[in-house]
């Protein structure tokens, strides 16, 4: 499927007259949890020609959209952010963008910009904000859970953000996207490990919305970890406001200098 995705990205460049700097897989395939029926969730960062930025209407205003969405069929969802939007979100430690940059499946690299973004992460990463995001994600999914007949999707979307928050707590670094690696690194209890192995097996061999049973220990683990993580967040100080805007401005200008169609 990689070549058809690359060809579609090249067609987007022609149709929208943009340059795609970076494109990756997001979602279950990036997490190592894809089944035969899993969709392809392609995410990308793009840049316009330099003259587009010399406008009295900035990108993201009027008709100058800062996103591109393409969904031609059910299996392939393509979504991209314009580079200045992406850099502003990077400044805020936007978790979705950080996941893109850490995806193990990269379809397209056409600039040095993404490597420069990664090098800035230690100066930019807001541990507290990211932990709050993932803890809230887990809590919201836990509230939606049908205890007697939960869906695989919901259980995964409880456990995965908890493990990401735990990694952030322990390392103050953004984690790898591989779900199995997170489980093996962070979970030491044998019974919880067994339920995780069962969950992973059911995820990769059945439909994402398949209903599952017998994850009581795993869900109690989730509740306990959320209590611990919320207590940790309360103790974290708010960041002092690292001055990275000029570095991001230079990164943007370098990307413009590299622009070629």
Automatic annotation (TrEMBL):
It comes from the Bacteria. Pfam families: RlaP (PF10127). This is Nucleotidyltransferase domain-containing protein. It comes from Ornithinibacillus halotolerans. The lineage of its organism: Bacteria, Bacillati, Bacillota, Bacilli, Bacillales.
């Amino acid at each position: 499927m990689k070549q058809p995705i690359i060809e579609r990205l090249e067609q987007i460049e022609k149709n929208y007259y943009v340059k795609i700097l970076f494109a990756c897989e997001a979602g279950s395939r990036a997490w190592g949890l894809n089944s035969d029926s899993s969709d392809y969730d392609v995410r990308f960062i793009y840049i316009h020609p330099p003259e587009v930025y010399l406008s009295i209407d900035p990108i993201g205003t009027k008709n100058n959209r800062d996103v591109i969405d393409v969904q031609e069929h059910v299996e392939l969802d393509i979504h991209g952010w314009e580079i200045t939007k992406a850099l502003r979100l990077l400044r805020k430690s936007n978790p979705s963008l950080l996941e893109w940059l850490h995806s193990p499946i990269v379809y397209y690299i056409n600039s040095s910009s993404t490597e420069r973004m990664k090098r800035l992460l230690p100066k930019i990463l807001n541990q507290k904000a990211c932990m709050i995001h993932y803890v809230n994600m887990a809590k919201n999914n836990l509230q939606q859970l049908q205890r007697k007949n939960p869906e695989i999707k919901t259980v995964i979307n409880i456990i995965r953000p908890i493990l990401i928050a735990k990694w952030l707590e322990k390392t103050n670094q953004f984690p790898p996207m591989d779900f199995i690696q997170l489980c093996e690194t962070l979970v030491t209890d044998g019974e919880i490990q067994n339920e995780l192995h069962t969950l992973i097996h059911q995820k990769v061999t059945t439909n994402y919305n398949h209903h599952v049973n017998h994850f009581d220990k795993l869900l109690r683990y989730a509740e306990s970890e959320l209590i611990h993580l919320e207590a940790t967040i309360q103790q974290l100080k708010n960041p002092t406001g690292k001055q990275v805007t000029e570095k991001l401005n230079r990164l943007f200008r370098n990307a413009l200098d590299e622009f070629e169609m």
